[in-house]
Amino acid sequence: MTDALPARRLLLVHAHPDDEVTGTGATMAHYAATGAHVTLVTCTLGEEGEIHVPELAQLEAAQADQLGGYRLVELSRACAELGVTDHRFLGGAGRYRDSGMMGLPTNDHERAFWRADLDEAAAHLVEIIREIKPQVMITYDPNGFYGHPDHIQAHRVAMRAAELAGADAPQKIYWTAMPLSVLRDGMDAFRELSDNPFAGVENVEDLPFGHADDEIAARMDGTDYYQQKMAAMRAHATQIPDNSWLYGIAGDFGGEFMGVEYFTIAKGERGPGEGPHNWESDLFGGLGLEQPAGADEASR
Q1: Across the chain, which distance is largest between two alpha carbons, in Å?
Q2: Quick one: which H or E segment has residue 182?
Q3: Which of 46, 68, 249, 258 could be 16's S-S partner, Cβ–Cβ 3.0 to 4.6 Å?
Q4: Residues of 268-298 as b/e, b for ≥16 C-beta within 10 angstroms?
Q5: Which pLDDT score is estimated for 159?
C-alpha cells in the first residue's frame, strides 16, 4: 500500500467532526496541497453536539438522534475543502458514540467512546497505522486540550496504538497546543468582541490549556490556506454558527490568527527550527523526507 503513497504521510486522530478544522485545518490543508498523504481518523460521529441550525434542531440526541449521520456529511464536505481525501472513522462509522461533556449521563452510554476498551480501540487504529505507515501523527495532549472525555480518550487511543504498532509506529508524535503568549494577545483582542469566549477570565493561566512558549515545538504557518480552513469551518454549520467568535476574530485578524497552528512534541526529535524559540516550521523536519521541490509554490 505505502509504495503507492507519497513519501510523506501524516496521520491525525480527532474526537469529533469539526475538531479537525479548528486546531489543525490549516496544517492539514498545507500538507495535502504540498503532496503529503494526509489521513484523518475521527473517533465518533459527534452525536451529542449542540445544533446551531434551527431547522435541524430535531436531529438532536434527545429527539430523532440523527445528528451523527448529518455530521458525517459535514465532515466529508470539510475534508473536501481542505483537500483531504483519506478520512476514516475509528472502527467504522458509528462504532463509538460521542460521550458528551465530562460528568454527563451520556458518558455511560454503552457505545460511549469514553467507555471504550483501550486496547480494542487502539487495535482499530493500529490497522490504519500499519496500512499507511505515517511518519508523523497528531493528536491531543493527556487533557484532551481542554478536558472533553472523548478528546482525552482519543489521546489515550492514539498513544496506545503507537506503542502497539511497533516498527510501524510514527517516528514523530505531536500534540495540539497554544502558546501562552498567543493566548494573551488573543484575550486582549477578544475583549472587543460581543461574543467573547474568554469572558470572565482574568488571567490566561486560569484557562485549562496553554503552554509556555519554550514548551512549543512547532509553529505551522498555514496562512496561505486560511480561506480553505474557513470554508471547512463553514461546512460544519451545525456546530459553528455564523455568529461564532471564530468568524469574528477571523474577520479582524484573518490568516494571522486562524492560519497559524502550534504543537508540542511527544515523541521523536525536533527538526531544524527558527525564531527566538527555535520552533519547527515543518513537522517532517529531521526525518530526511524533504518537501518535493516547488510543491509549496505549485499549491498556491
Answers
A1: 53
A2: helix 180-190
A3: 46
A4: beebebeeeeebbebbbbbbebebeeebeee
A5: 98
The domain limits of the chain are 2-178+210-285
151 is in an annotated binding site: yes
Q: Which CATH superfamily is domain 2-178+210-285 in?
A: LmbE-like (3.40.50.10320)
Task: Tell whether residue 282 is among the known ligand binding residues.
Answer: no
Scanning the structure block, which residue is given the C-alpha cell 492560519? 259
Ranges of the chain whose pLDDT falls below 50 = 298, 300
Task: Give the closest residue to 176 by CA, choosing from 146, 133, 202, 204.
Answer: 146
Instruction: Return phi, psi of residue 222, to 5°.
Output: -110, 30
Report phi then psi at 158, rounded to 5: -65, -45
The annotation status of 16 as a binding-site residue, yes or no, is yes
Q: What pLDDT shows up at residue 247?
A: 62
What is the predicted pLDDT for the residue at 209? 74
Which residue reads 458525517 in cell numbers? 72
Residue 200, pLDDT score:
63
56, 82 Cβ separation under 8 angstroms: no
Report which DSSP code applies to 244.
Answer: -
pLDDT score for 184: 77
